[in-house]
Amino acid sequence: MTDNHEWWRSAVIYQIYPRSFADSDGDGYGDLPGVISKLPYLKELGVDAVWLSPFYRSPMADAGYDVADYRQVDPLFGATADAHRLIEEAHALGLRVVIDLVPNHTSDAHEWFQAAIAAEPGAPERQRYLIRDGSGPSGELPPNNWRSLFGGEGWSRLQRPDGTPEQWYLHLFDTHQPDLDWNTEAVREGFDDILRHWLDLGVDGFRVDVAHSLIKANGLPDEDATIDRSYFNLGPMWDQDGVHDIYRRWRKVLEEYDGDRVLVAEAWVPDPERLARYVRSDEMHQAFNFDFLTSAWDAASYRKVITETMAANAAVGAPTTWVLSNHDVVRHATRLAREDPSDTGGIAATDPQPDAALGLRRARAATLMMLALPGSAYLYQGEELGLPEHTAVPDHLRQDPIWFRSGHQEVGRDGCRIPMPWVADAPGAGFSPNGQTWLPQPDSYAALAADQQVGVPGSTWTMYHDALRLRRESRLGAGELAWVNAGKDVVAFDNGPVRVLVNVAGAPVPLPDGKVLLASTELSGELPTDAAVWLRLR
Known about the structure:
Blueprint: E1 12-16, H1 32-45, E2 49-52, E3 56-57, E4 69-73, H2 80-92, E5 96-101, H3 111-118, E6 131-132, E7 155-159, E8 165-170, H4 185-200, E9 205-208, H5 243-254, E10 262-265, H6 272-276, E11 286-287, H7 290-293, H8 299-314, E12 321-323, H9 332-335, H10 356-371, E13 376-380, H11 401-405, H12 460-473, E14 481-483, E15 490-495, E16 498-503, E17 509-510, E18 514-519, E19 526-527, E20 531-537
Parallel strand pairs: 1-2, 1-13, 2-5, 5-9, 9-10, 10-11, 12-13
Antiparallel strand pairs: 3-4, 6-8, 7-8, 14-15, 15-16, 16-20, 17-19, 18-20
């Protein structure tokens, strides 16, 4: 593996959702040996690194984002030795490894929480969590009005062994995910040790889950009921200034190690300048640009998002980190065909069904736009195959806690977490040796399987492969963007020797005189609507 300085500034990183990537043992769940078996596929695709969603020991109340032991692999995903082998084999192929870190909360099965609930109020063990007295005459009401992001109250009441109610604990997500109190030094020291554990094993960095939530406002004040919670970074539990002290501390830990280890923030912060604070020179290295992900399919919107975020990041010397899909949002091959592409929520069979062909056309075009931009980029497993959202998961098979905690009002995220299709004519599309899949695959996945696309001219996989090769050869990730005026409905810019045109909504656009390097669709002298092209001008 090359040890190029600040590799993360221009890297393309591939997100693996382990339970849905490849199943080696036939239980219907993907696992780390399955991931290892597909590393050559990722090397051939041309990515620089992989990011793995949680594989730690967990009761799986939230698909592994409820961590019971941050140092051990859950048996669902294999043995702890498999994680060590994965890191070694990825490095042998020249791929770096970033792993998920979930610091806002633990599982209620974590030894810290078990010790907390066994202790008396005010004991040091309880200070690791946001456990507080209730309000009301006898503490019978929650400490404040905060709600869970998964639906329902944000607080649950503890009980003594004899059933006597006592204090309350905060859970911004599921009831099985108690929030940690990051004002407690024992919590900070504990995570220092967790970081060092994995850094010693060779991981190249950490993606930090809900990085903007670790610190809550002093006194835990009530939330303003008038705040629009559709964008959940607003309020006293999000984006508090104190989080930055934590990341400065972590940055010092990473700098104890060689190899340019990286911290990546998942922070849903709409103000580009506030988001840029997470990637100042002594804090994190990357922060996902969710404004780009949620942009309308509109040229002016894209130009605005790109300009503002690049300017804000440049002011602190950081690259912009682009992303279009992940394990929490509707896949962009479906979302971009929605009436409102900024709507990332799940889709049920009874909801309006986006046009699959339109979604894929726009997704291919959006991908070429993203991969031509300076900075780093993240891909979500299966997008290189053009996988759509599964919009008709049977209700009785849903597993996302959002579905249950919302009283079946929100379908949740199962549709973007469907097991990967590898072999078209194999049971379960080759996901597992016996065809078992923990969530059902839609019929459309067979035709999109990897064996139908790898090396096939015109396939979405081939477009991704060629884009990654050209991006690397032309050093687009380390380039500079210069806007080009090509009409109000066209996103057009130069990055080094490459001109990029994305026709978002207008009439077909004549192509300038130059060599077509790559296009999202077949061209005949002009760029049609919902299409993109890379050119080398003469």
